[in-house]
Amino acid sequence: GQQVMQIPQYQHVQEGEDFTTYCNSSTTLSNIQWYKQRPGGHPVFLIQLVKSGEVKKQKRLTFQFGEAKKNSSLHITATQTTDVGTYFCAGTNNLFFGTGTRLTVIP
Amino acid sequence: DTEVTQTPKHLVMGMTNKKSLKCEQHMGHRAMYWYKQKAKKPPELMFVYSYEKLSINESVPSRFSPECPNSSLLNLHLHALQPEDSALYLCASSQERAVYEQYFGPGTRLTVT
Fold it and tell me: What residues in chain A have their Cβ under 8 A from chain B's Cβ atoms?
């Protein structure tokens, strides 16, 4: 069946450092969505990517969709303590969530 | 109103109990979802309702029974659960199935004793 892996599983960064999480699917994705889940919270939608090679920016967050639509990345510039949480990608083919990357930001 | 509400917030039930989880949204969304999330794991899709009809059932055991009484409400009926069913149960909704952003509720933390 379809698998969506994310790396790294965990990331600890000093505040101000950059952070990147990668999402890799075993099958081609129609679209990909990214969600953030704060500790003790619920997933919150961040963005959806639709086109091959698409790049979208939200302030310090940059999202990319691979040319083959099988991988994606989320890059955060100059992390802040408010960025703490687990970041999930999700393919819209069958709403399969990736394994997630848990980000810890050390002040 | 971009909120999805879920009740109860916490639920403790024995293996012989029958209980229900409730979810409500007033955004006019036509797709609603149930997910199960274990600690430190991603949400796992259980059921999808599209226009009040069950469109996806991800091979969920029959001790979980979903119901969509109307376009704003989604229930999950629980019966004869096992301790391994303890988890956070998340409800979500979206404008249409799959290709639109999902709005998640705060979840119900279920403990089966």
Answer: 30-31, 33, 35, 41-45, 48, 88, 92-100, 102
* Residue A99: closest CA among A12, A8, A20, A30: A8
For the segment B35-71, what is each residue's pLDDT rounded down to a tens digit?
Answer: 999 999 999 999 999 999 998 788 899 999 999 999 9
B58: CB partners within 8 A, 6+ apart: B44, B45, B46, B47
In this structure, which amino acid lies at residue B18? Answer: K
Looking up tokens 């040319």 gives: A67
Torsion from C-alpha of A65, B90, B48, B40, nearest 10 degrees: 50
The torsion region of residue B28 among left (phi > 0), alpha (psi -120 to 50) and beta comes to left
Radius of gyration of chain A (CA): 13
Query: Closest residue of B to A46, CA-based?
Result: B101
In chain A, whose CA is at the least distance from the CA of B106? A42
pLDDT digits (tens, 9 = 90+) for B78-113: 999 999 999 999 999 999 887 789 999 999 999 999
How many helices (DSSP H) and strands (DSSP E) are in chain A? Answer: 0, 11
> DSSP state, A60?
T
